[in-house]
Specification:
A: 284 residues, mainly alpha, MetI-like fold, 81% helix, B: 294 residues, alpha/beta, 9 helices, binds adenosine-5'-diphosphate, binds magnesium ion, transport (chain B), nucleotide-binding (chain B), ATP-binding (chain B), ABC_transporter-like_CS (chain B)
Chain lengths: 284, 294
C-alpha cells in the first residue's frame, strides 16, 4: 500500500492507473518469476554437478537455437533441419488429430442423438477409451506396416475416444427446453442438428479436442520411436541411443515448446469462436 | 370451433407400481381469441397440461385438440413461451437471429422475415437490441425476446408457461401489460399458465383453477373486468379483489381437503420448491400478494 501510494505520488498519476499497471505487472511476474527461478536453480545445480546426463539449460537453449532456429531472420528463422525434423512430426500429429477428432465428433453426434442405443454404445466406448493406446500398436504395425499410415492411424485412433466421449456427453446434455423449443416451432431435424445440437455441443467438443491435442503429440513421439527415419521422436530416440545427450535434451525442449504453442493457438481460437459460452459460464 | 379443446385428459408419469398421476380427467375449452389463464399450486400439473396441449408429450388417455387437430406431435399454428427464458433462447445466436430462426423453417421470403422480426422486436420494445446476444440482456429483456420470437411466428394459439415467474415485480407488471396488449392487437388465442392468483385474474378473460394430486379442474370463472386494464386501478377494483379471493378460497379449500386425508400425498405433491413465490414477489404491487401456494 505504502509503495503504491508513494509511487503514485512520485509519478503524479491517478492511483487507479498505477494500481492497474501494478496489477498487470504483478500478473506477469507471478507467471514468469517461479519458472525463471526454477530454470536458474537448474542452471546452478547442473553447472555445479557437471553431470554428463544433465547439461545446463543455457547449453540446451543454445543447442535448440543452433539446430532449429538459427536461419537468418529474412528466411524466417527456422532452419532446414527444423522442417526436416519437426515438419513430418507436425503433419503426422495434426493429421491424426484431425482425422480422429472428425471421427469422434461424427460418432459422438450419432451415438448421442440415438438415445435407445446408449446401452450398446457406452460399454465399448468406455473399454476402448480405457485401453492404453500403446497396446494397440502391434495391431497397427501388422495391418499398416511400419509406415506413416500406421503412425497417423495410431494417433487418429487415440484421439477418437476422448472426442467421441465428450461429444456424446455434450449431445446428451443439450438443454431439454432448447430441444422442446425446436420441436414446438417445427424445426426440421436436419436444421436442429446443424443449428442447435452442434452449436450447443461445441464447448464440449472443443474441450475434447484440446485434451487430444497433447495426446496426439504423445502418440506422435511414440509412433516415431518405431522404425521411423524422420521426425522429432526419431531424432530424440536416435540422440539417446548415440549418447548425444545435449541433442536429446534439445529435442525434449522443442517438443515442449511445440506442445505449448499448439495449446496456446487452440485456446485462442476457442475463445474467439465460443464467446457466448465463456460469458455464460462466467456468470455461473 | 374452439381454438383449444381438451377432453378427459389423463397423464401418468412412469409405469406400473411407480406410476404417478399428474393429471386426471381434465376437460376444458378455449374459445378462439380468448385469453384463458390456468392457475394452480406448484406441482399440480400445469406444465404437464401445457405440454400435452402443445403435443410435446403424449397424454395417457383423453385428447387435446388445437384448432381442430388432435395434438399428435406439435400442431400447426401454435407457439410456446417457456418459463425458463435463459434456457429456451439460443445463446450462440444474436437476438434478431433468435427471433428469425423459427421463421426460416416456414419458408418465408427474406424481406417478409426481416419485417416480421423488426415488428416483433419493436412491439416488445427491443428494436435496438437485435444485434446483442441474449446473455447481454437482463432477465426481463430475455423473456421479451422469447415473446417476440413467438409473436414473429404469428401463431393462432400461444401457450405460455409461467413466463414471468422468475423476473422481478416491476418487470413482471410490464410484461403482463405487454401480454394483454399483444392479445388485444393480434387477436390470437392465449393459454396462460401461472401459480400467481393475482396475475391469473389480472390477465385473463377467464380463469381455470386447478387442484393438486392428482391435478384436475376445480372450477372456472369468467373475469368481469374492463378490457383495458391498469396495474394500479384494476387491481384495486372491488371486482378484482373479489375474484382473486374467490380463486384463493377455492385453492385453499381444496388443499385443506388434500391435507386432511392424512398426508397420503407424496412429499413432492406438497410444495416443490421450484415454483414457490420468489423473494421478488414480496414487493408485488398488489396490496396482499396471493399465490396459489397459500
Ligand atoms: N418428467 C416427469 N417424470 C415424473 N414426474 C413428473 C415429471 N414431470 C412432472 N412430474 C410430476 O408431475 C406433477 C406435475 O408436475 P408439473 O406439471 O411440472 O407441475 P406444475 O407445472 O404445476 O408445477 C408433479 O408432481 C411432478 O413431480
Ligand atoms: Mg411448471
Amino acid at each position: 500500500m505504502a509503495v503504491l501510494s508513494s509511487a503514485a505520488a512520485a509519478a503524479r498519476l491517478p492511483e487507479h492507473v498505477v494500481r492497474r499497471v501494478m496489477g498487470i505487472v504483478g500478473g506477469v511476474l507471478i507467471r514468469v518469476v517461479p519458472a525463471l527461478v526454477a530454470v536458474l536453480l537448474w542452471q546452478w545445480a547442473a553447472a555445479a554437478e557437471q553431470s554428463p546426463y544433465f547439461p545446463t539449460p543455457f547449453d540446451i537453449a543454445v543447442r535448440v537455437r543452433e539446430l532449429w532456429f538459427s536461419a537468418p531472420l529474412g528466411d524466417g528463422v527456422l532452419t532446414d533441419r527444423f522442417l526436416r525434423d519437426a515438419g513430418p512430426s507436425l503433419l503426422r500429429a495434426l493429421g491424426g488429430w484431425a482425422l480422429g477428432g472428425a471421427a469422434g465428433v461424427l460418432l459422438g453426434l450419432v451415438a448421442g442423438q440415438w438415445k435407445r442405443a446408449a446401452g450398446y454404445i457406452d460399454p465399448p466406448v468406455d473399454f476402448l477409451r480405457s485401453l492404453p493406446k500403446p497396446a494397440i500398436v502391434p495391431v497397427f504395425l501388422l495391418v499398416f506396416g511400419a509406415g506413416d499410415l500406421m503412425r497417423v492411424g495410431l494417433i487418429a485412433f487415440g484421439c477418437t475416444w476422448p472426442v467421441l466421449l465428450n461429444t456424446l456427453q455434450g449431445v446428451r446434455t443439450v438443454e431439454p427446453v432448447q430441444r422442446e423449443t425446436a420441436r414446438a416451432f417445427h424445426i426440421p431435424v436436419r436444421v436442429q442438428l446443424v443449428r442447435i445440437i452442434i452449436p450447443a455441443t461445441l464447448p464440449k467438443i472443443a474441450a475434447g479436442l484440446r485434451i487430444t491435442l497433447s495426446l496426439s503429440l504423445i502418440l506422435m513421439v511414440l509412433s516415431e520411436w518405431l522404425l521411423a527415419d524422420s521426425g522429432l521422436g526419431n531424432f530424440l530416440i536416435t540422440a539417446q541411443r548415440t549418447f548425444d545427450i545435449l541433442d536429446m535434451w534439445a529435442a525434449i525442449v522443442l517438443l515442449g515448446l511445440v506442445g505449448y504453442l499448439l495449446n496456446l493457438l487452440f485456446v485462442a481460437a476457442e475463445k474467439r469462436l465460443l464467446r457466448w459460452h465463456r460469458h455464460l459460464s462466467a456468470r455461473g | 370451433m374452439s381454438a383449444v379443446e381438451v377432453r378427459d385428459l389423463t397423464k401418468e408419469y412412469g409405469k406400473g407400481a411407480s406410476a404417478q398421476t399428474a393429471l386426471r380427467g381434465v376437460s376444458f375449452e378455449v374459445a378462439e381469441g380468448e385469453l384463458l389463464s390456468v392457475v394452480g399450486p406448484s406441482g399440480c400439473g400445469k406444465t404437464t397440461l401445457l405440454k400435452c396441449v402443445a403435443g410435446l408429450m403424449p397424454a395417457t388417455s383423453g385428447t387435446a385438440r388445437v384448432l381442430g387437430q388432435v395434438a399428435d406431435g406439435v400442431p400447426d399454428g401454435l407457439a410456446v413461451v417457456f418459463q425458463d427464458y435463459s434456457r429456451s433462447l439460443f445463446p450462440w445466436m444474436r437476438v434478431g437471429r433468435n427471433v428469425d430462426f423459427p421463421l426460416r423453417s416456414l419458408g418465408l421470403r427474406t424481406a417478409e422475415r426481416r419485417e416480421r422480426v423488426a415488428r416483433a422486436l419493436e412491439s416488445v420494445g427491443l428494436a435496438d437490441k437485435a444485434d446483442r446476444y441474449p446473455w447481454q440482456l437482463s432477465g426481463g429483456m430475455q423473456q421479451r425476446v422469447a415473446i417476440a420470437r413467438a409473436l414473429a411466428y404469428r401463431p393462432r394459439v400461444l401457450l405460455m408457461d409461467e413466463p414471468f415467474a422468475s423476473v422481478d415485480a416491476q418487470t413482471r407488471a410490464g410484461l403482463e401489460d405487454l401480454t394483454r396488449r399483444v392479445h388485444q392487437e393480434s387477436g390470437m388465442t392465449i393459454l396462460f399458465v401461472t401459480h400467481d392468483i393475482d396475475e391469473s385474474v389480472y390477465l385473463a378473460d377467464r380463469v381455470l383453477v386447478l387442484r393438486r394430486s392428482p391435478g384436475g379442474v376445480l372450477t372456472e370463472m369468467d373475469v368481469e373486468l374492463p378490457v383495458v386494464r391498469d396495474q394500479i386501478t384494476t387491481r384495486s377494483l372491488p371486482e378484482f379483489v373479489r375474484q382473486r379471493s374467490l380463486v384463493a378460497q377455492h385453492i385453499r379449500a381444496a388443499s385443506g381437503e388434500a391435507d386432511g386425508v392424512g398426508g397420503a400425498a407424496g412429499p413432492d405433491a406438497n410444495t416443490p420448491a421450484d415454483a414457490r413465490p420468489g423473494p421478488s414477489d414480496s414487493d408485488a404491487p398488489s396490496p396482499q400478494p396471493a399465490t396459489a401456494n397459500g
